[in-house]
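Entry for the shared binder. Reason: the reviewer on the internal report wants the predicted structure included alongside the sequence.
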Amino acid sequence: MKYERFEELPSWKAAIELAENVYSLTERVQFKGKYSLRDQIERAALSVSNNIAEGFERGTTQELLTFLYIARGSAGEVRSILCLLEKLPVFCDLKFEISNLKSHAEGVSRQLRAWADSLQNSEIKGQRYLTKKEQKRYEEQKEQDEFAKILQSYVKKD
């Protein structure tokens, strides 16, 4: 499936949901007076979706990869802060929410890793380089490769 806008991306949607849930968590009374901690986790959570969006809009596969890894790093930062929160007594009543958020952040990180892995194995340099001629050549090569696989399956059957 080809995505036209970053808002359609499953990983971006998951990252936005992570940020929404982090913001809901930081509205809790336990964060009162903990401005730097609250600010840090909110910024890290927001950074995940923002880096996915920025990378997607850049137009090259290499730039997208760079921003996906930055987004992944931000998801790791969210998890790290959540690990700290689990250890602080003031947040003991929020263990369930914190645990769910850690799982969510891990899921986002896995999605980003899978996407990055697939991009690293792609021959497409990115939208910026994909002229009509190059797109046609890519599609023709893809069809040839699929046809070759079908032929190979017949050879193996004999």
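Summary line for the report: DSSP finds five helices and no strands in the chain.
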